[in-house]
Amino acid sequence: MQIDTLITAKWIIPVEPKGLIYQDYAIAVHEGRIIELLPISKADRYQPTNRIDLNNQILMPGLINAHGHAAMSLMRGIADDLPLMEWLNEHIWPAEQKYVDAEFVYDGSLLACAEMLRGGTTCFNDMYFYPEETARAAEHAGMRAVVGLIVINFPSAWAQDADEYLSKGIQLHDELRNNSLIKTAFAPHAPYTVADAPLEKIRTLAEELDIPVHIHVHETAHEVEEAEKEYQIRPLQRLENLGLLTPHLVSVHMTQLTDEEITRYADSGAHVVHCPESNLKLASGFCPLDKLIKSGINVALGTDGAASNNDLDMFGEMRTAALLAKAVAGDASAVPAEEVLRMATINGAKALGLDEETGSLEVGKAADIIAVDMSGIETTPLYEPISQLVYSTGRDRVTNVWVAGKHVLKDRELTTLDTEAILDKANQWYHKLAE
Description:
This protein is of the alpha/beta class. The protein is built from 15 helices and 16 strands. The protein has helices at residues 84-99, 102-118, 131-141, 162-175, 196-209, 221-231, 235-241, 259-268, 276-281, 289-294, 314-329, 337-343, 346-351, 385-392, 419-433, and strands spanning 2-12, 22-30, 33-39, 47-61, 63-68, 121-126, 144-151, 182-188, 213-217, 249-253, 271-274, 298-301, 369-373, 398-403, 406-410, 413-414. Strand 14 (398-403) and strand 15 form a beta hairpin.
């Protein structure tokens, strides 16, 4: 049988079925989709246009960065080592008001796409102004993305009020309706920056369009305290009262939770995105990850923006998530490596409504695949591939990346993006913002 691509490797970790690891296997890819996973010894049934043999490497699903602000890569390192609200109010929001426009968002998103692809991320979920520019950058890079239809109370260069944010967002959703790589989600910034009326509209529209609602929730103790003063209830209760606790909801951070809230949230079928490194850097608190998982909540993994992380490294995020969860739970067996790998792949796909398309290496799914070289000093000897990926492997070990079968990173070189041009643009923005 003639096919487009055959990739062989020492190991394949498909993620689904859970716990399975294939050794000396191949993946057959045709027209952007996986058509078979099979032993290398049987691969001669295919006649590929391209055959790629990756000795001592792991093939696995592309990582899914389930929360970020791609354009903010241009603000990497601005106002470090400050608490969240001071960082936002005194530094980030003033910089955004002065500099953020369509060009800023496109250039920053392209920089983020380059970083993510080089680190094995094939899909990202974004929340920022000018989402059409983030979509354009992702499409240029050949990445899969869910762009947030942002809503926030205050005016920006992109929209003046909640109605305009929603109107522009719905227009973009319609424009992207048939795009195979780029999808949309409603992205109200947070309960403290979006009023009840637009949140109710978003609930109705999300149900009609069947797309996620992506929002920061219970990020800090201060957020919860201020909400109790203003509304006499906690933010999560307010969202529940507005009818937003549904399987469409994707809540980011969730560091301030009671056991009762975890139980109610689990019953709702809503999802959580854990951003451990950003939470640590901003001293926002500790997400009770082990409790969430044991309650049956689908938990995905995200980096947050490079302005508060300061990278988009999902390998680093996996390791931090696993280690932090053990310390918070007081249990070394909490959140094992395999669970964290699922958070970074299939769980992210489920949260974004993409699990029929990506998040695991299964027949019929899109060929969103990464190859990770395990032959180096840092990853030798190798007893257990999944543990080694999570606890020992850096993003610099990613050698090749395919999105929908397209080879977008080949032997560590980006094939869809001009690295020098991206660096030049980023440095031009640095000189503006550093003034």
